[in-house]
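Handoff note, outgoing to incoming analyst
You'll be picking up this chain. Sequence as last confirmed:
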Amino acid sequence: MKLILASHGPLAGAILASAELIIGKIDSVAAFSLTKEMGPKDLERELSEEIEKTDDDDIVLGLDLLGGTPSNVSVTLLAKYPKLEVITGINLPMVIEYGNQKMLGQLNVAQLISMATAGVTNVKEKLAEDQSDED
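Most recent structure output, in case you need it:
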């Protein structure tokens, strides 16, 4: 399985670097940044090249947000590579979960999404809930 991250600016690479700081080197991950000098075709070419050099059929393309240039490029890529999975809203918990899944030799896209959404928490509310549970 392979995870390809793509974002506006350096976000994808920074998330990957942070995840590897926490859990160590994660195999089969690549990060791509859309810069202001690039156009959609440039990003599409880079992502296509990465997909083409991957032997695995299980490829997840993780994007920063729905509706931006990386997301729009992914629609073209889905037409070329129908087995490609595309998810938006990449974050650190999602990439760490991918690393854990990779170590176990499994790929569960629904679990990647679940970890990403579970990682968004209002800490003040959580503390208040925990406090009321103790009372």
